[in-house]
Amino acid sequence: MTEYMTWALTTFERTYGFAMAADAQHTGAALAPFRRPSGLIALIEVEDVPVGVAALRTQDDGAVEIKRMFVRPGQWGGHLGSQLLDWLLERACEEFGARTVRLDTNRFMDRAHRLYESRGFTERPPYQGSEIPAELQHLWRFYELCPG
C-alpha cells in the first residue's frame, strides 16, 4: 500500500502541480480500519511476487468501501485489476453483507474509471465517510454500486 500511495501522490503532484498533504507510509495503525472484522486487505501475487493490493472497509452506514486498489504498472493489461475487483465485490457481498459498495478514484485514473464502470458502478456525489478532504473532492470521482 505504501508503493501505491507513493505512486498516487507522485502522479497527483505531476498532474495538478501541487503536493497533497498525505503520508504514503502505511503503518500497522494506518491499516487498522482495513482489518477484520470490519475490513480486509488483499494482495495479488504472480509467481510469488506481489503485484497488486486492495482493501475493503465497512462504513458507519453499512456500505462497504473499496480502498487502495492498485496493480503495479508493469502488470497493467493482464486483467489482474478486473480479477481483483470481482473478488472484492464477492467478498463485500458474501462476507460483509454489502447492499452498497462505494469507492473514490482520482480524476487522472482513467483506466480505473473504465474498469469500475464496466462492472456497473455509477458516479455519485462525494459520500459521508470518504477520506478525501472536502477542498480536494473536485479532483476525485466517487462511485457506487448496489450489487444485485
Major sheet, described briefly? 6 strands, mixed
Radius of gyration: 15 Å
Ends distance:
30 Å
- Helical proportion? 25-40%
How many separate helices? 4
Shape: globular
CATH superfamily: Gcn5-related N-acetyltransferase (GNAT)
CATH architectural group: 3-Layer(aba) Sandwich
CATH class call: Alpha Beta
Secondary-structure class: alpha+beta
Task: Assess the beta-strand content as a share of residues.
Answer: 25-35%
Q: Mean pLDDT, rounded to whole units?
A: 92
Main sheet: strand order: 1-2-3-4-6-5
Whole-number tally of structural domains: 1
How many strand elements? 6
Q: Would you tell me which CATH topology applies?
A: Aminopeptidase
Q: Low-confidence segments, ≥5 residues, pLDDT <50?
A: none
Q: What is the string of helix and strand elements?
A: HHEEEHEHEE
Structure description:
The protein has helices spanning about 1-15, 30, 80-95, 110-120, and strands at about 40-45, 50-60, 65-70, 100-105, 120-125, 140-145. The chain has about 150 residues and is an alpha+beta fold. It has a single domain, classed as 3-Layer(aba) Sandwich (Aminopeptidase), CATH 3.40.630. It has a 6-stranded mixed beta sheet with strand order 1-2-3-4-6-5, with helices on both faces. It is globular and about 40 Å long. The mean pLDDT is about 90.
